[in-house]
């Protein structure tokens, strides 16, 4: 079953005191294009994440983001040298200005430079197994969403191709009707020439084959978006030839409808992996 290219998934990462959220989203793109929004220190994971993605995705723009939501509590340190300096200055000011009072601990910790806060950055090397596991899990959810989109696309393409087959039947019937009418009016030689000039059997047969091929591709488990787009281009060529060879109001209307169906098919091909 074919897959679409639109999807989103979110998975939590937990490793020790570190907790993060990994999000993967994908949209249409001609090729596989991976973009990253990672915290500092996680850049080394880019190639590894891409390798995991390539096992599950062959086409589309994939955006990977990791957000740290919790990490190890920062460490606090008292700068004793700064504290001593503050206390010396306190004594000097008291003597010079004959002031009273005592600096409390509460007063000291509010002074600049007394307390130093050291953020503990997660050790990214130890986080990779958890990130890899989350990436695989997120891709699983993403694939389910892309498969659902693929099912919807398949239904629409089947509908378009069914309408095309009806149009082909209309053109065949009209061709027979035109030939029957002209056979009564033209000489044998003139009729043979006329018949040859409007003969669209080959084009209709090829168009029918392309429809069958598109439907066959819809059942594939491989990436077939580009192939379906190519088939649709060939359908367009056949429709143009039919319109130029068999000029009739009914046929022209059927050809316009065919082209509309083909264009919708091509639009959907852009959404298929």
What is the count of DSSP helices, taking H or I runs of 4+ residues?
A: 8
Average pLDDT for all residues: 92
CATH topology of the largest domain: Four Helix Bundle (Hemerythrin (Met), subunit A)
**Helix amount, in percent?**
55-70%
- Radius of gyration, in Å, reads 35 Å
Number of strands: 6
Tell me the structural class. Answer: alpha+beta
Q: What's the N-to-C terminus distance?
A: 11 Å
Overall spatial form:
rod-shaped
Largest sheet: 4 strands, mixed
CATH architecture classification of the largest domain: Up-down Bundle
What is the name of the CATH class of the largest domain?
A: Mainly Alpha
- The total number of structural domains is 3
Description:
The chain is α+β, with helices and mostly antiparallel strands. The protein folds into three domains: about 5-70 and about 125-145, Ribosomal Protein S5, domain 2 (2-Layer Sandwich), CATH 3.30.230; about 75-120, no CATH class; about 150-270, Up-down Bundle (Four Helix Bundle (Hemerythrin (Met), subunit A)). About 60% of the residues lie in helices and about 15% in strands. It contains eight helices and six strands. The chain starts with 6 loop residues before the first strand and ends with a helix. The model has no long low-confidence stretch (mean pLDDT about 90).
């Amino acid at each position: 079953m074919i897959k679409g290219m639109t999807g989103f998934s979110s998975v939590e990462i937990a490793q020790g005191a570190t907790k993060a959220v990994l999000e993967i989203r994908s949209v249409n793109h001609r090729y596989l294009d991976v973009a990253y929004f990672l915290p500092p220190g996680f850049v080394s994971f880019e190639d590894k994440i891409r390798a995991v993605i390539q096992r599950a995705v062959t086409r589309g723009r994939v955006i990977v983001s990791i957000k740290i939501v919790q990490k190890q509590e920062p460490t606090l340190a008292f700068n004793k040298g700064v504290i001593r300096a503050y206390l010396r200055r306190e004594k000097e000011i008291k003597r010079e200005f004959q002031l009273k009072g005592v600096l409390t601990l509460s007063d000291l910790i509010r002074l600049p430079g007394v307390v130093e806060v050291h953020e503990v950055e997660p050790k990214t090397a130890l986080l990779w197994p958890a990130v890899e596991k989350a990436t695989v899990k997120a891709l699983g959810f993403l694939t389910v969403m892309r498969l659902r989109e693929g099912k919807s696309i398949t239904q629409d393409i089947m509908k378009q191709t069914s309408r095309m087959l009806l149009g082909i039947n209309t053109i065949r019937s009209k061709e027979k009707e035109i030939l029957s009418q002209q056979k009564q009016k033209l000489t044998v030689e003139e009729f043979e020439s006329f018949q040859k000039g409007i003969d669209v059997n080959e084009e209709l047969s090829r168009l029918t084959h392309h429809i069958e091929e598109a439907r066959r591709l819809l059942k594939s488990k491989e990436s077939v978006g580009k192939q379906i787009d190519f088939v649709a281009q060939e359908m367009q060529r056949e429709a143009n030839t039919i319109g130029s060879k068999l000029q009739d109001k009914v046929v022209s209307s059927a050809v316009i409808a065919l082209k509309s169906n083909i264009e919708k098919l091509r639009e959907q091909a852009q959404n298929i992996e």
